[in-house]
Design a protein that fits this description.
Distance between the termini: 24 Å
Number of strands: 0
Number of helices: 11
Oligomer: single chain
Order of helices and strands: HHHHHHHHHHH
Keywords: Cell membrane, Membrane, Transmembrane, Transmembrane helix, Transport
Strand content: under 5%
Radius of gyration: 16 Å
Membrane topology: Multi-pass membrane protein
Number of domains: 1
Family: Belongs to the 4-toluene sulfonate uptake permease (TSUP) (TC 2.A.102) family.
InterPro entries: TM_pro_TauE-like (IPR002781), TSUP (IPR052017)
Shape: globular
Protein name: Probable membrane transporter protein
């Protein structure tokens, strides 16, 4: 019963976080590991469980979603499919021991990029104008998302800011749409490779769906600064816990 409650709460809050600004996997991954799921399977299962939340979040922001300057929506979604597939395939061949060592560093990297995102975006402004550079940037982030998913929303928001977007709601809508698309292809590969704990994923899906819908509706009522500080605090806490483990 405790495990079930833990997974439901983690999935609900993670769905809301992902709809608003990202960072939901900072909660689902450790929750699944705490219930005894091996790290690689926990990562894959958490990704599958959060898919409904991405879908509901994308629906909630459907009127705000816009492609970043210099990239068509078709090109962006095509790169997302390719990157998600490549990242998921890489996870299939990653041993648990290796993944456990890499996770805290990935969490810390994602948190740092989000925390210093505005400064990084400002310093690199104008340097991502080349269409090839833009495409490669999207591909790199979506490969990361297909492999780990933790902090994916944070990285996507930083990337869209770098590519010239400034409206947070438009960025959030696009983030959820890209996340949902690459997660669909990644989830299919995870399932094919036998990496999904379906009982736990099923428990979490409904909670993530509800959290994503409510998070998208409530995002406009929360100051952006509060969201940023809360996500950075969550990322640092989870990074520290995984380093200690």
């Amino acid at each position: 019963m405790f495990d079930t409650i833990l997974l439901l709460v983690a999935a609900f809050v993670a769905g809301a976080l992902n709809a608003v600004a990202g960072g939901g996997s900072f909660l689902t991954l450790p929750a699944l590991v705490l219930t005894g799921i091996p790290p690689v399977v926990a990562n894959a299962t958490g990704t599958v469980a959060l898919l409904p939340g991405y879908l509901s979040g994308a629906w909630g922001f459907r009127h705000d979603t816009q492609a970043p300057p210099g990239l068509s929506m078709r090109a962006l979604l095509g790169l997302s499919l390719l990157g998600g597939g490549l990242g998921a395939a890489l996870l299939l061949v990653t041993p648990d021991v290796t993944f456990r060592r890499v996770v805290p560093w990935l969490l810390l990297l994602a948190t740092a990029l989000f925390a210093f995102g505005p400064q990084i975006t400002q310093s690199l402004k104008g340097r991502a104008g080349n269409p090839l550079a833009r495409g490669l940037s999207v591909l790199a982030v979506t490969i990361y998302g297909g492999y780990f998913n933790g902090g994916l929303g944070i990285l996507l928001l930083a990337l869209f800011g770098l590519l010239g977007q400034s409206d947070l709601h438009a960025m959030n809508g696009l983030k959820n749409r890209v996340s949902a698309l690459l997660t669909v292809i990644a989830a299919g590969l995870y399932a094919w490779g036998g990496l999904v704990a379906w009982r736990e994923a099923t428990i979490m899906m409904g909670a993530a769906l509800l959290g994503g819908f409510l998070g998208a509706r409530g995002a406009r009522r929360l100051p952006a600064m509060w969201l940023r500080r809360g996500i950075v605090a969550t990322g640092l806490t989870m990074s520290a816990l995984f380093f200690l483990q």
